[in-house]
Specification:
Layout lengths: L10 H18 L7 H8 L4 H7 L2 H8 L6 H10 L5 H15 L2 H14 L1 H23 L4 H21 L10 H17 L5
Length: 197
């Protein structure tokens, strides 16, 4: 397949080729060992298109490792709905996303890559703050909103790692709804300071 030297193909098609190629490379190699030229070769496009569509290797890495869907839309949907069930709904959505998108492999790759590159860790931290934590804190409002968001997310991430990465029982095999019901009060308090469902 000949390389496209410019963005003549449909934007979505080129982006998808690059994301798939990047994901495959990052899953099998350390971040520092992956070059933009290798990704472009795998995608069958010119390496300049990575900068054209993503701006940098770090941005391509972040997008190829991102949660499915639009994180901003997800945050808006969660925090704009019934505040009294925020903890429960967030836990359910976290488990649904993890189970339907193969997140266990992605998280393993992400952790390895973030720990292996200070630059990648810093850029990913900035992205997380800009795209998820700050918008969620703005919607949540009140005193120390960013701290409360980070605390709630820390509890959820810890639970997800125990359930899906270490697969510790009985958490690993507990039905989603039951696990969400048991942990919802904790997440609810961390997010909002008040108990809910």
């Amino acid at each position: 397949m000949g390389k496209r030297r410019g963005p003549r193909a449909a934007r979505g098609e080129v982006r998808d080729h690059l994301l798939r190629a990047a994901r495959a490379r990052f899953w099998s190699h350390d971040y520092g060992a992956v070059t933009m030229r290798e990704i472009a070769d795998d995608a069958g496009v010119d390496a300049a298109l990575i900068n054209y569509y993503f701006g940098s290797k770090a941005n391509l890495f972040r997008e190829s490792m991102s949660l499915p869907g639009d994180p901003v839309e997800l945050v808006l949907a969660l925090f704009s709905a019934d505040r009294a069930t925020l903890g429960y709904r967030t836990l359910l959505i976290a488990m649904e996303i993890w189970e339907t998108s193969g997140m266990t492999t992605t998280v393993k790759v992400l952790i390895r890559s973030l720990l292996g590159s200070d630059q990648t860790l810093d850029e990913y931290r900035q992205w997380l703050d800009t795209v998820i934590i700050t918008p969620a804190a703005r919607l949540l409002g009140g005193k120390n909103a960013k701290y409360r968001i980070e605390s709630g997310l820390a509890h959820i991430l810890g639970l997800m790692l125990v359930r899906y990465m270490t697969q510790a029982e009985p958490i690993a095999s507990m039905p989603r709804e039951e696990l969400a019901r048991l942990h919802a009060p904790t997440v609810q308090v961390l997010f909002t300071g008040t108990y809910g469902r």
